[in-house]
Amino acid sequence: MTEARNVTVRAAGFLVPPEFPGLSSMTGGYLCAYLDAWKVSLRMERRIRPLDRSTCDSLVTKLGIARGKLDLKSGRKALNSLVGPEDPAMDPRLRHVLDNILSTGRLQDLATEAGLSPQRIRALISTTLGVPPVRLRHWARLTRAIEVLDQGLTAAALHGGFADQPHFTRIARRLLGSPPGAVF
After folding, report:
1. How far is it, in rounded angstroms, from Cα 96 to Cα 127?
2. What are the Cα distances from residue 124, in Å, to 49, 117, 169?
3. Which residues form the HTH araC/xylS-type domain (predicted)?
4. Fewest CB atoms within 10 Å of the CB: 45, 64, 139, 178?
């Protein structure tokens, strides 16, 4: 894996924190597990963490990949030891925002529903989750879009709330480092 600072790191696998800037390439076959920023420990280190072969093999086994049947629950349990527990304790107002990020049109309306000012909700999202609200919304749209990716990129883009397929592809490339067809 090559970081923006032109540092090459070699390992069997990597843990990459949400919104880690500057990854430019990964070579060879690899497994990517994208975790929602709010579902990992808020204390997760903001650096790439290399994983040894036995850890990677254990994750692949627990995810059920070799058996051809994904076991996400077991895989998540295995990841807990590396990234912290799912759904860490958080401010209920922030939980409201996360639950409704796509159902409410404007951040101002969402902030009002949560009983906060738009400035305070922006600060709460950024400081707690480490991502700005616009990225949070993009991630939620991307997550929704991949639910129907098997129906094609245009259908997925519309389902996710993107303006069109190129918009979906741009956001996927920005957040995942690759277009959606190459990742999923």
Report:
1. 16
2. 26, 10, 28
3. 91-184
4. 45
CB atoms within 10 A of CB 116: 19
Q: Are residues 77 and 51 in the same domain?
A: yes
Assigned token pair, 111 = 């902030």
Spell out the alpha helix ranges (H) of the chain. Answer: 53-63, 72-83, 92-100, 107-114, 118-129, 133-146, 153-160, 165-176, 180-183
Measured between alpha carbons, how far is 131 from 129 in angstroms, rounded to an integer? 6
pTM of the model as a whole? 0.70
CB 1 within 8 A of CB 8: yes
Query: Quick one: which of 70, 5, 87 has its CA closest to 31?
Result: 70
**CA-CA-CA-CA torsion sign (21, 100, 92, 117):** positive
Q: Could you tell me the mean pLDDT of each successive run of 10 residues in the chain, 184 residues long?
A: 62 73 60 67 65 88 79 79 71 87 84 92 86 88 87 94 94 84 70
Judgement on whether residues 179 and 143 belong to the same structural domain of the protein: yes
